[in-house]
Amino acid sequence: MPLLQSIVHRLDPSLDGERLTVTAAPASTPAANEDPVMASLVNSLNDTYNTKAKGWGRFAEQGEQAGPLVAWLRAYMAEEQDFTQLSIAIAERLAQTLQEQLSVSGYLVFAHLRQGDTETLFLGLVHQREGIGINAEHQAVPAAQLNTSQLTLAARVNLTQWQSDSESAQYVSFLKDRGGKKLADGLIALLGMEEGIDAPAETRTLLKAFSDYVEKEDYDDEASREKTDTLVDYANEQLRRGEPMTLEELSGLVDEKQPKAFYDHIRNADYGLSPEIPPDKRTISQFRRFTGRAGGVSISFDSHLLGSSIEYDEHQDRLIIKQVPKQLKEQLAKRKE
């Protein structure tokens, strides 16, 4: 992922813990081909960010939520303000907004990146940890390292999507750790954004739509398993890339012979899904299909149903189905007639 601009500022809490101070870098770092180490750092932070739970939204243009970031970004993209000025302005506002939530020092990394036709702005707070290295005399010595696998706070703006005046509700994302609600709220205030997509809820609804589609089409065990693997693989690939799932693209992957079938099923049944859905890692990881066939009995169900509508009694070797499918109930009822 080409690095266009980057810079690192330091945040330090005061001795009394009541405020944060910013120690700014004098100038931004050259492009990736001139500083491969910085490019490696940013790519590592981006990879970590992609795997974390996030909130999604868009800039609030009016009202109390709107902040100065939009104006700063417009000035930067119009080359009326350089990257160093932009990053310092954001860092100082962040220090003011989060002065009561951060109690340890850290490095605030800013990066302007381009991947294909898409440009993004990334910011992340990373902390330093003590490690051990080997010096020129082959002796073990203390060596400070950046803990790139753990981000305290981070956010990313899809600059291309934002500038296109898209109606998308998700061109801004931010780290949304369960244990860091105050930090997340501070980031929302800093970004001047309004939350849009609930990624876990949207992902669960998508999986429900998929389960309904597989049942409606009456696929056999092998086809059901293959299509489930396709969905999960696509979701994980989008997670790795830090991009949302697109319903039309997913529909084409689920059924190449009828690329619009799954998409039409979603729209016709009115699940209320957005055209683009940020995949939720935890929800996706729990979604697989269990299948089995023996003695004239064929069973197939989504793994997330286990423990809710389906129970497995290991000691008595039996499955308990609490919600019998409507089509099956109708067939059983006709048998009694």
Describe the structure.
There is one protein chain. It contains 11 helices and 14 strands. With 337 residues, it is an alpha+beta fold. The chain folds into 2 domains: 193 residues, no CATH class; 138 residues, no CATH class. The protein has an 8-stranded antiparallel β-sheet. A two-stranded antiparallel ribbon has the order 9-10. A two-stranded antiparallel sheet has the order 11-12. Strand 1 and strand 2 form a beta hairpin. Helix 2 packs antiparallel against helix 3. The radius of gyration is 25 Å and the shape is elongated. The termini are far apart. The mean pLDDT is 83. This is Nucleoid-associated protein YejK. GO terms for molecular function: double-stranded DNA binding; single-stranded RNA binding. Belongs to the YejK family.
Pick out its properties.
two-stranded antiparallel ribbon, 337 residues, 29% strand
Topology summary:
Blueprint: E1 3-13, E2 20-23, H1 36-51, E3 54-59, H2 69-77, H3 83-97, E4 106-115, E5 118-134, E6 140-158, H4 159-163, E7 172-175, H5 181-191, E8 193-195, H6 199-217, H7 221-241, E9 245-246, H8 247-254, H9 261-269, E10 276-277, H10 281-285, E11 289-294, E12 297-302, E13 310-313, E14 318-321, H11 326-336
Helix pairs in contact: 2-3, 3-5
In short:
This protein is an alpha+beta fold. It has eleven helices and 14 strands. Helix 3 crosses helix 5.
Name the average pLDDT. Answer: 83
Number of contiguous helices: 11
* Quaternary: single chain
Largest sheet: 8 strands, antiparallel
- Share of residues in helices: 25-40%
Given as residue ranges, the uncertain stretches (5+ residues, pLDDT < 50) are none
| Span between termini | 66 Å
Order of neighbouring strands in the sheet with most strands: 2-1-4-5-6-7-3-8
What is the alpha-carbon Rg in Å? 25 Å
Number of DSSP-assigned strands: 14
Q: What share of the residues does DSSP label as strand, in percent?
A: 25-35%
Element order, helices and strands?
Answer: EEHEHHEEEHEHEHHEHHEHEEEEH
Shape: elongated
Structural class: alpha+beta
How many domains comprise the coordinates? 2
